[in-house]
Amino acid sequence: MRVVVDYDLCESNALCMAAAPEVFEVRDDDFLYVLQEEPPEELRAKVEEAARRCPKQAITIEG
Amino acid sequence: MGGQRIVVVGASLAGFRAAEELRTAGHDGPITVVGDEPHAPYERPPLSKQVLAGTQPPAATAIHPATGSIDDLALDFRLGASATGLDLAARTVLLGGGDRLPYDGLVIATGASARRLPGTDHLAGVHTLRTLDDCLALRAELEGAPRRVAVVGAGFIGAEVAATCRGMGLDVSLIEALPVPLERGLGPQMGAVMADLHRDHGVDVRLGVGVVRIDGEERAERVRLTDGTVLDVDVVVVGIGVTPNTDWLEGSGLTLDNGVVCDETCLAAPGVVAAGDVARWPNATFDEVMRVEHWDNAIAMGAHAARTLLAGPEGAEAFAPVPWFWSDQYDRKVQLAGRAGADDDVEVVSGSVEERRFVAFYGRSGRVVGVLGMNQPAKVARWRSLVEQRTAWDDALAIAGAAA
User: Fold this and answer.
1) A33: domain CATH number?
2) B147, B243, B245, B254 - which has most CB atoms within 10 Å?
C-alpha cells in the first residue's frame, strides 16, 4: 500500500491525522506531513478512513 | 447478515458510505441503493464554492470509495427513484411507481431538503442550493452577468454563497433575521466576527431584518425587508435551513421528531438504521440528542449505522463522535470540532480575532464542548481531543494557555 497526497488539493483540514496519526501529521506550520508513504498493511483500515474523511479528496491509496 | 438483502434509501454521502462500509465489513448479499436524484453519488460541499464559481467541473464532485472504483462495490443503484413508504412489518420499501423492495436490513439516509421562501415558487431568479441541479441552475444565472445578488439567510450555505458571489465580482446583500450571521452554528460572539469578515469583503450585511416578500412580474426584481428597505435585485439565493426528508416515513411506525429518532447505536427499529442529516440520536459525549447536518457526520454515521446493522442489537456500539465541520469563506477556513451554542462561554485561546487567525473554546456545564478555529487547522486538530475527553473548562483553558 502506498499513500499519495495531492498537495494542490490538501488544505490541512487534519481529519486524516485524526483517523491515522501513525501516517499523517499536520504540524504547527499547518502543513501536512506524511510520516510513512508505505504504511504496513495493518494500518489499511485507518488509512482508508483517512482518505474517506478528507474533505478535499486529496488522499489516494495505491495498491 | 451475510447473503441477506440490504436496502439503502438515499444515494448521497451517508447512504454511499453506509453501502461502502457494508462491503468493507464483508457483507456479500445484495445491496440496493435508492436515490431520488438522477445523479450517481456526489459531494455537496463544492456546490456553494468551487462548482458554483466555475473553478471545478461538476464531474469532480463524484464520490469514490477509499480504494477501487464504485463498480467494485456491486451496488444496485435505483437512481431517479423516490421512496414513498415503508412497511416495517413486511420489511418492504415502497417506491414511486409501485415497485416494492423487500429487505432484511434497511439504512435510512434520505437527508434533508432546502426550505423555500413561501410565495416565491412562481418567480424566476429565486434559488435554493442543495443539489447539483440547484447549483447548475444558479451557476447559469450567475454566468448571465447579474449585478445584484441578494442572499436570504446567513447560515453556512448563505455565507459561502455570498463569499463565492463576491469572488465573482457581484454586488451581494446578505440578509439575516438573527442579530449576527451563523448564530445557530457559532453563537453570537463568533457570529459577529463572521459579519465583519463579510463586511470587509464588501458585502452589504443586513442583520436583524426579515424578508416581507419578493416582488416581480415573472422574475424577482425587488426584495422588501421588514425594516422598510427595498433592494433591487437580479438574483435571490435563499438559504434558510433544511427540513429532514421524513415525509415518506409518516405512519410507518418509526418515531419521527425533526428527523428519524434512533437509539445511541443509530438503530431506529429492528433491522432499521438511520444516518446523516435525517437522523437524530443521543450522543453520549455531549449528553445531548442531536441531528447533525455536517459532511463529516454523514460519513462517520453512515459507516457506523452500517456496522450496527451487521452487528445486530447485541453487538452494536454507541455512536458518540465529536462533530466536525469546516467552511471556506474568502481566504479564511473556519473549522469547528464539537458544539457551539448561543449560551456557551466563549474564550479566545490562541491567535487574534483582529488578524482573523485564532482558536476559541466553547464551554458549557463546566467543560469544553467546542473548538473553533479560523485558519488554525493544526490547533483545532490537536485540541479536538479535549472535547472528546470531556475535559473540564478550566483544565482546557490551562492546557491551551500552556501551549500558547
Assistant:
1) 3.30.70.20
2) B245
